[in-house]
Hints:
With 338 residues, the chain is α+β, with helices and mostly antiparallel strands. It folds into 2 domains: 2-88; 107-334, Bira Bifunctional Protein, Domain 2 (BirA Bifunctional Protein, domain 2). It has helices at residues 2-18, 22-33, 38-44, 54-88, 107-121, 135-138, 170-179, 220-235, 281-291, 310-318, 331-334, and strands at residues 125-126, 132-133, 164-165, 184-193, 205-215, 241-248, 251-261, 269-279, 302-309. Strand 6 (241-248) and strand 7 form a beta hairpin. It is elongated. The protein starts with a helix and ends with a helix.
Amino acid sequence: xxxxxxxxxxxxxxxxxxxxxxxxxxxxxxxxxxxxxxxxxxxxxxxxxxxxxxxxxxxxxxxxxxxxxxxxxxxxxxxxxxxxxxxxxxxxxxxxxxxxxxxxxxxxxxxxxxxxxxxxxxxxxxxxxxxxxxxxxxxxxxxxxxxxxxxxxxxxxxxxxxxxxxxxxxxxxxxxxxxxxxxxxxxxxxxxxxxxxxxxxxxxxxxxxxxxxxxxxxxxxxxxxxxxxxxxxxxxxxxxxxxxxxxxxxxxxxxxxxxxxxxxxxxxxxxxxxxxxxxxxxxxxxxxxxxxxxxxxxxxxxxxxxxxxxxxxxxxxxxxxxxxxxxxxxxxxxxxxx
Length: 338
């Protein structure tokens, strides 16, 4: 056994010294140290060696294996150095260096950071939920009737098992109330999905920022004050803000929010920017039923909710005319937002 190991060692070291490429070295390693390699086959015969000879044979086996492994490693390193040196032969070190342009945060990330920072100062905490949702969380719990257009397959992405891609992040409001008793003051930024035709103002995958505040005595005045403060922190403290009566299934009363857009060289005009309202009592009743208690009793607590489209905010803030620019990753466009 000892003589065989010495022969294997000598043959291996000699063969390794002659290796001229990485692939050949790897093939050699397999032929000696692989599952059916020469040294591995020799090691398998250890069981047939007399008991008194096994310690010496085992020691010799380990020494040969370690020596071959080390020789392969050293040869591989020297071959790689030679490869790298050859590759560098054609490098012209006199060429001028290339200017590295610093990166910047995407406009959507910037607008989200600004909004979240403002709302965190107002006492809101971040919440999140799944993008693949149930119809109950996306529609039923939010008082959206079966005949509502948003529930049609032409407007919403459904899966075969009945689940769907959430059409708004309002689902996080429901999940938060399911698991947490009032008071609740959360914001839920995230992706939403709708079957919209992609054009200059619509995407099928977009980003929203939802907010919810529920407690005893929450008033419409608090809703108005909170959103005016948020929008003026984004667009400027003198930005005119107005609330128009509207309808949403999950809030009553409901409002659309407009700001006065003052584009350079153009006449000022009102532009819709968000939706909001006081949480409908039917939403609280649905949450109570899911919880199995009366924590959100409509006669004891109240709340407001709002939703903002982040792409829309960015387009208004920076005067972006086509929403598709925000998803094309054209570096020439993104460099405008350091």
